[in-house]
Every structure is written in C-alpha cells, then in structure tokens.
Design brief:
Helices cover 27% and strands 31% of the residues. By secondary structure, the protein is of the alpha+beta class.
Length: 131
Amino acid sequence: MSRYVHIELRATTLEAVEDALRVLALPYARPRRRVRLRGSLECTGDPVDIRLEAGLLDTVEDFGFAVDDGVLRLICGELDEASLRDALLPKLHHAIAQQRVEQSVGHEGLTVVGSRLEADGTRRLILELDD
C-alpha cells in the first residue's frame, strides 16, 4: 500500500521553494487555494500549496509542498521518498542557499558573477563590486 510521507524542510519558506523550483526549471502549480494531490486507489491525496506532476524526476505519484503550523514539508508518496531525497532535495537546498547569498551580497553592493567547485567539494563564489 502506498502512503504519503511528510518530510520537514527546515529554515525555508514556500516562496523560497517556489523561486528554487523556477531556478531548477521544474514545472509546478501554485493555485490560490490548496489542492489535493491526486492520490491513488490506496490513499486519498494530501492537501498542498505547491503541486508537481507525477513523472517529474521519475516520480510515480504527484508530490508537493505545504505549510502547516509554520512548518514547511515536502509531501510525496512513500515510493518516491528515497528518489526525491536524492534527486530533488539537495538541488533545492543548493538553489535556496545560492539565492540567499545573492540577495545578501546584493545588499552589500556586490554581484555573484560565477562559481567554481573545488576538488574538496567547496564551492567558491566569484563576486564583483557594483559600480
């Protein structure tokens, strides 16, 4: 039986997730009101604020993001949990972190013009002073 699982995402907002999905070029829907995931014969869909179609990132079921009681969660079918933890969440966290850095340095009169991945896994940002 397939059930939905809820994965808590710390220190981020629905807006940051939406921006990151745009950066990652992942199509999504954010209706004015919550929608239910389509679910399956085994379970009804959970309500979400942002919904992504089944098949995206090789998922079996549709999935989405919801905020309840101030906590943001990724909601997905248990069959998709492992693949989304591996294929989506690291890229999502990276995109959110990059956006935060760009906003931060922008307030200081700098612009991120590139980045470089070092052999040890460290990512170095190349900054330019705004004129």
